[in-house]
Input
Amino acid sequence: MDYNYHTHTVYCGHATDSAEDYIRRAIDCGIRYLGFSDHAPFRFPDGYEAGFRVPVGQAKNYFEELSRLREKYRGEIEIRIGFEMEYYPDHFENMRQVAVDFGAEYLILGQHYVLPENQGGVFSMDRHYEFEDLRAYSNSLVAAMKTGVFTYVAHPDMYNFIGDNLLYREEMRKICIASRKMNLPLELNLLGIRDNRIYPREEFWKVAGEEDAPVTFGFDAHAAMDVYDKASVTVAERMVKKYALNYIGKPDLKLL
Ligand SMILES: [Zn+2]
Ligand SMILES: [Zn+2]
Output
């Protein structure tokens, strides 16, 4: 694996190590294509700014530091600078514009919340058992995919639905079918493997295999060491075999 487009930085406040440490580690491990995709900066119209994002006041520094490093390591590694972003219909256009104005080259979708954070959020990884909530999640993912701006869908299986499995599979199938039809990859998230999270969720990837959705990997690094880790790649490769996933390798960037 010589690519990783899912990398955080200290700017989001919950990752460690300098950006240069990530880059050095990536080069050492044979990564040739490295994308930084920290949590997109955004101030809601009511002034609210969530604590997990790159602060709006720091976003310029994020780009300046990464751009400087990109030049420094040019020839050794190809660096791209973007964001991981949620899709909220009422704010989407503003969020996208803010990202573009700061200089984002690409976006990955990370639907950590279903409702905007200033409206109570609804954290995807919390336990959910209402079918309507699951449907709201799958609808928001498909709507996000249709915007055409996202390079891929990070951890599409992060929604922790604990209700009926049959309903779960049918809702996830909609996401997988949309992915195949739009040729928009789904990310098998290696942080989930490393951290033993609720994702990757086996049932999801079984459906993804059945629907032949394009699949890519992302380390979702929040520390320099995790910009590459062989153990989680091995587990992910096993899942590719087990569910006959359509693994595409390095995704094509949708440049903004
Ligand atoms: Zn994420
Ligand atoms: Zn992430």
Remarks:
- The longest strand covers residues 78-85.
- The radius of gyration is 17 Å.
- Residues 165-182 form the longest helix (18 residues).
- The helical segments are 19-28, 59-72, 92-102, 131-146, 165-182, 190-194, 202-210, 230-242.
